[in-house]
Specification:
Order of helices and strands: HEEEEEEEEEEHHHHHHH
Radius of gyration: 46 Å
Structural class: alpha+beta
Number of strands: 10
Strand order of the largest sheet: 1-2-3-6-7-8
Oligomer: single chain
Distance between the termini: 175 Å
Shape: elongated
């Protein structure tokens, strides 16, 4: 029995010694560290400015312009005139002869070229200017008329690159004294079917450019074009004759139109147009005949035409006084 116990003791002691030796070997193989290792986090680099792509525009802040863009447009007759400009302010500065020097071409605004566009040919002081877009310049002078200039090059920055050889027309203009105006302003006045005045006002000066159109020539060309497309329309013929009668032009042409209109349709409107045409030609006796017929037919027609009956009766009375 004692021998068995002794053998078991020796076996357990051997196992313990083997385990202790294994732990010592493992500890000697492991790396030695006196403190837990702190991971290293890389510091991010500052972002570099993004380079513009080739050919792209630089980024700009959305700031208000010192001389804001303005656009003014006016139609008269069959012509539309538009001025596209940037409006500088006085800002307590001396303008004429200083900010805007005398005897030098001025862009008539700020920033890019001031542009003026005509939808049809126009007349400037009797000089014909074709329809299109032009740069608008002013040459101020101290002791004589200023000059208003239309130039065919529209892509300059102001007066940079200006060449007088590209001028389409130069017209004189005498500046007039005006109430103080802080911002440059373009505006239209004296508007009629045959023309209008384009005005430039800044500080205490106003310049005026009279613009005329050959509106009747344009209208007649349009009338002929439309009547060729619809030659059998009695109302269009009556409208064409009425325009000529209203403006007291082309009497023979008006008579041709109104006679054809009456041949196609005997109505109050075209009878009245012919009555007025004959009265213009001092043929009051025949005018009375057509006027009476127009009034008789007008009594049977719509209320729109009936509203004209009082004025028609007044005209008839006047013609009767002249005829008899």
């Amino acid at each position: 029995m004692n021998r068995v116990r002794l053998a078991a003791f020796r076996l357990g002691l051997g196992i313990s010694l083997l385990c202790a030796a294994g732990r010592a070997q493992a500890q000697s193989a492991a790396p030695v560290s006196s403190a837990p290792e702190t991971p290293v986090v890389p510091t991010p680099a500052a972002p570099a400015p993004a380079a513009n792509a080739a050919g792209s525009q630089p980024v700009q802040l959305p700031l208000p312009q010192a001389s804001p863009r303005a656009l003014v447009s006016q139609t008269f007759g069959l012509t539309e005139v538009t001025v596209d400009y940037h409006a500088p302010a006085v800002r307590a500065r001396a303008v004429w002869g200083s900010l805007v020097p005398y005897d030098q071409v001025w862009r008539a605004g700020a920033n890019e070229n001031t542009l003026i566009t005509f939808s049809t040919p126009v007349l400037l002081r009797g000089q014909t200017v074709p329809a299109g877009q032009y740069s608008f310049y002013v040459v101020p002078h101290q002791d004589r008329d200023w000059e208003l200039v239309l130039n065919r090059v529209t892509t300059h920055w102001g007066a940079e690159g200006y060449d007088q050889r590209d001028d389409v027309v130069r017209v004189p203009a005498m500046p007039e004294t005006a109430p103080f105006h802080e911002n440059l302003l373009y505006w239209f006045s004296d508007i009629k079917p045959t023309g209008a005045h384009l005005n430039l006002t800044w500080e205490k000066r106003t310049l005026t450019l009279p613009i005329e159109t050959e509106v009747h020539k344009q209208v007649l060309s349009g009338i002929e074009r439309v009547l060729q497309q619809k030659p059998g329309d009695w109302q269009l013929l009556a409208q064409a004759a009425d325009y000529l009668v209203q403006n007291n032009i082309e009497a023979e042409r008006a008579l041709t139109y109104i006679n054809e209109s009456l041949r196609l349709q005997d109505a109050a409107t075209n009878n009245w147009v012919k009555a007025r045409l004959l009265a213009q030609q001092q043929d009051f006796g025949t005018a009375i005949v057509y006027a009476r017929k127009a009034i008789k037919l007008g009594d049977k027609e719509d209320s729109t035409f009936k509203s004209q009956l009082p004025s028609m009766r007044i005209a008839l009375t006047e013609w009767q006084a002249k005829a008899y």
